[in-house]
Amino acid sequence: MDILDVEKSKCIGCGACVSIDAEHFDFDSDGLSEVISNENLKSEALQTAIESCPTGAIRLAKTDDAYEGDVTMDDDYQQTSTVMATKSES
Ligand code: SF4
After folding, report:
1. Which 8-state DSSP code applies to residue 20?
2. 39: closest CA among 13, 20, 21?
3. Residue from 4, 8, 14 whose mutation best tests the ligand 1 pocket (most atoms within 8 A of CB)
4. Quick one: which of 6, 11, 58, 85 has the most CB atoms within 10 Å?
């Protein structure tokens, strides 16, 4: 599963992503971008927004990449453990 994320420390609040793709981005109370939807992640507007971010703050990552080591669900934990074990064997 993919997950969309804005790295707040990199966001400068320029608004490009919000203008281009209002389905996925809006401003938070600090004037920085925040993700408002994790649906329709293959949309053309989202790809354009990611490419247009001047600081590279927008990430579209696999759930395991984004939250490795921070998983609380048992099923996900087992899945992450399997992935990590596979990685360490290669
Ligand atoms: S385009 Fe990038 S820097 Fe600009 S508001 Fe969006 S996430 Fe922040």
Report:
1. H
2. 21
3. 14
4. 58
Cα–chain center distance at 36? 11
46 touches 21 (CB < 8 A): yes
Domain range annotation of the chain: 2-63
pTM: 0.72
15: helix, coil or strand?
coil
Q: Tell me: the pLDDT tens digits for 23-65?
A: 999 999 999 999 999 999 999 999 999 999 999 999 998 876 5
Q: Whose structure tokens read 């990552």?
A: 61
Domain 2-63, CATH: 3.30.70.20
pLDDT tens column, 10-32: 999 999 999 999 999 999 999 99
Give distance in angstroms: CA of 77 to centre of ligand 1: 32
